[in-house]
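Review this chain:
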Amino acid sequence: MKRSATAVWQGSGKEGKGHLSTQSTTLNQTQYSFSSRFEEGVGTNPEELVAAAHAGCFAMKLSFNLGGAGFTPEQLETKCTITLENGSVTGSHLILNAKVPEITLEKFTELVQDAEKNCPISKLLNTAITVEFTLA
């Protein structure tokens, strides 16, 4: 399987602007700029997209882990915060709120730790990854 996206940038790094499009067209000439990346401007940015990818990948991997252990989650809500410092991604922090009937905290912790280490985006990132969670 291969997936693709295209970035088009015009102008200088600070004054220029660009847009992103994905193969699925979920992003279709979605704007990004210096302002949307380093300030509070309208549009997306690479770190926000990495955060979405990591949150989604982690939640899906955890769901597969839970299913393999005989549990069906009611809901896995995952927020990811990517930290960019001095031009490098220095961390990815996942916050999980989970509703999984009949699972023990010990088993859930084991499955979360596996998802943290083994979801494809975690494997891709060369940075510190942390997870905190609540289980209902």
About this structure: The chain has two domains: 5-38, 46-135. The mean pLDDT is 96. The domain at 46-135 is CATH 3.30.300.20 (GMP Synthetase; Chain A, domain 3). The chain is about 35% helix and 35% strand.
